[in-house]
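G., the chain you wanted modeled:
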Amino acid sequence: MTDTPTSLWQGQPHAIVERDGVHYTLLGTAHVSHSSVEAVEDAIDSGGFDTVAVELDQARLQALTDPDSLARLDLVQVIRKGKVAMFAANLALAAYQRRLAEQLGIEPGAELKRAAAVAKERGLGLELIDREVGLTFRRASGNLGFFGRLKLASGLVAGLLSSEEMDEEEIEKLKEGDILESTFGEFAQSSPALYESVIAERDRYMAARLREAPPGAKRVLAVVGAGHLAGLARHLAEDSEAPRAIRERLEHAPPARSLRWIGTAIMVLILAMIVWGYWQGGAEVGRQLVLQWVVITAGFAALGTILAAGHPLGVLAAAVSAPLKPFRPPGVSPGLFSALVEAHFRKPAYGDFLALRNDSANLRGWYRNRVSRTLLNFILTNLGSSLGVWVAGLRIAGRLMS
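Predicted structure as C-alpha cells:
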C-alpha cells in the first residue's frame, strides 16, 4: 500500500504495514543517492514516527560513523578466533564502498548513516535490524559447493582489487538493489544460493527484528534499500512464526561440512596408502613415502608464506606445522601459525589500521599494509598447504603404482 505523495519522502518507494498494534512505514532508498538522504531527513522531521529502524548492524554503523574503529581492532584475536574470512569480507565491502564513494561523490549507505544520526538528534528510538555481515558471508559460503565457494572468493577478491569505474547501467542497478549483493559481483545474480543468503534471508531477518521492536514503539520508520522493500513488506505482514525463532535460525552458521569431510577422506586415503607402502614394500618404501609427504606439504605451505612476504620464522612455522595435518585439531592450520608469527614480529601500527581501507583497494597496498599482509599470510599459507596435500597424495599414489 502506498500514499499519494504529499512530501519529499512520500515520493520515494515505500510501503505501510499495520501489525500487532504497530504502524510500520518502510522507506525504500538508494544507497548511492543524495535524494535518498534528503528523503530520510524529511521523513524523520515530519514528526510522524517514534522509532527509526535502519538496514545496518552494529559493526557497519560503527564503520560508517567511526572510521577509526579499525585502529582499535585486536588482530591477533581475529586470527585466533577464526574470524579471518569474516574480516576479509568486511574489507571487501569497505573497499567496494570506497571505490563507489570516489566515483559518485557520496558514501554508500549515507542515507542509513544520516537516519541513525537524525534519530539520535531528535531523541527517537533507534533500532539496527540487519544481520551481521560476517554471518551473512558464512551462511552464503555454507550454502555453496566447492566451486561456488571459489567463485565467491574470486568475487570478493575482484571487489577488493578492482579499480574500474562502474558504468551507468551498474549504478542504476545499485540504486534499486543491495550493496552486499553488488559487492559479490555478477556471481550474486547467477547464484540462487547466494541470493537466498544475501537478499531473501535478510528480508525475513529484518522483518523479524522489526516485530521485536521495543513495547513503546508504535510508529516505526524503517529505512532499507529499495531492493528489500517488497520482500520485507511481505514477510512483515505474513510471517506467523515467532520472530525470535526466525532470527535465531537465520543467525546460525554451521561449518561447511562438505569440505571438511572431503579433507578427512583424502587424509585417511593418504595415510592408508603410506601404511600399504610399508606393508608391501617394507620399511624403505615406507620411509620414502613419509619423506615425500613431509617435503611436499612443508614446501607448499612455506611457498605460500613466502608469496605472502611472510616473516622467515613464519615460513619455518608453516613448514613445520603442515606435515602434522593428521595430528592437528580442527581449525588449527599452518596459516594460523604463520599469521600469528607475522602479527607478533611485524606488529601492525596505528597507521596501518587507519590506512587499511585505502591500502586494501589494490594489490600493492595489501603487501605494504601490515594488517592486510598478515591476512595474506593466513590465506596464502593455507592455500599452499591445501595444494601440498593434493600434490603429496598424487605423488604417493603414483609411487605405489609404479
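Strands lie at 14-19, 22-29, 51-54, 125-128, 219-225.

Shout if anything looks off.
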